[in-house]
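Human: You know discrete backbone vocabularies at least as well as I do. Show me how you would write down a chain together with its backbone fold. No explanation is needed for now; the record alone will do.

Assistant:
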Amino acid sequence: MSNKSVLIDKDSEQLTDEKKEQQYVHDVYQAIAPHFSQTRYKPWPVVEQFLKGLDVGSVGADIGCGNGKYLGVNKNDFVISIAVIHHFTTPERRIAAIEELFRIVKQRSHVLIYVWALEQNDARRKFDKEHQDVLVPWVVPASKNNPNRKEEATYNRYYHLFKKGELDDLVLSTGKAQIIKSDYDKDNWYVVAKKNGGSQ
């Protein structure tokens, strides 16, 4: 099975945005979670630097993990959202997700957001610059997938690939924050934003 991304087919285009995200994000990550977790063992340097730069005792949220049941309990000193926003299928849903990050963080606190870049330098992935919305396969080897299964399993994950400046524009469009830093790292665009002061 190929590891190359594929365009979204006509049948999938017929799905509602919620059903696309359910089928190509939620269901896929439920299926690949054990294998995916085994491949994530080292912090990314920019994320590590961001976290180490926080005051001792800061309380934060890592959005995109868990079910979020505690997010309304208290405002956070910081929020990180690593490789999550690119799984939302429309600009409106991406903006709503970013607005939620700012809702749950204290005034003048920082939010770090990472998304996959369309302009990737990684030799493993070369994306068609004309298509930002793609399905990217995740292959689980047979031995990792299920001891009773003799074949590998491939799951297609939905991604919106961000162009340079696109994440910045979405963050600024919320009117809730200013951008402290925006850059490219490990085939991702990232933004460090500071929530505006004033009323929450």
